[in-house]
Design a protein that fits this description.
2 domains; five-stranded mixed β-sheet; four-stranded antiparallel β-sheet; 25% helix; globular; Nuclear Transport Factor 2, Chain: A
Length: 205
């Protein structure tokens, strides 16, 4: 099935499958996988930012992984966890986008190599939607440094899935944050060979 057909399968079933009401902001697909990024309303009325990864086989949902974090009203960067660019640039090189996103995660977050952040991220123009970090590479470097000093270091150990479409790429990984095993969902928008915008959800395993 096509990417668009797989997206339709997921969007038709997302609320029933998750047991939540979802306002989907971004949806991308590649091969047998679909990713949704949504504001989700829980049965108790609470609201969260959610990433869900779906595997499609023969027009039906065959696998599903998903996590969410509560919506934060005040963030370090002034953005919300779900605002920003939503339109996928279909003319962008999907495989190039996929490569940038995976190399960014593996270098910075798996290897903890911060020696050339400008190579992977769009300098001070890098737009951050993680509520803990300020915009720009200076914001990321400062936050990671403070976490390390406080004993709450962040390190990914393995990349599990990468899904890209156009200028967007999603990476699902596992690792450790503050001594606890975590699952990480990262979504990047890529332009001119670097990540220019980032959204994520991170939760204990």
């Amino acid at each position: 099935m096509s990417n668009e057909a797989n997206k339709r399968v997921v969007l038709a079933a997302i609320d029933d499958t998750t047991g939540r009401t979802n306002q989907v902001h971004r949806v991308l697909a590649q091969g047998d996988f679909v990713v949704t990024h949504a504001t989700t309303t829980l049965p108790d009325g609470g609201r969260a930012a959610a990433f869900d990864l779906w595997q499609i086989e023969d027009g039906r949902i065959a696998g599903h992984w998903g996590d969410r974090e509560p919506i934060v009203q005040q963030t370090a960067n002034g953005h919300t966890q779900v605002d920003g660019t939503v339109v996928i640039d279909a003319a962008a090189d999907t495989e190039a986008t996929r490569k940038v996103a995976e190399e960014t995660v593996r270098t910075i977050l798996v290897d903890n190599d911060f020696s050339d952040l400008d190579h992977y991220l769009a300098g001070e123009s890098y737009v951050q939607h993680n509520p803990r970090f300020a915009d720009g590479i200076s914001g990321l470097a400062a936050a990671l440094g403070e976490l390390a000093k406080s004993g709450h270091s962040l390190k990914y150990s393995d990349v599990l899935h990468v899904v890209a479409e156009g200028n967007f790429a999603y990476v699902r990984s596992v690792g450790v944050f503050a001594g606890t095993d975590f699952v990480f969902h990262d979504l990047f928008r890529v332009a001119e060979g670097r990540a220019v915008e980032h959204w994520d959800v991170m939760v204990p395993r």
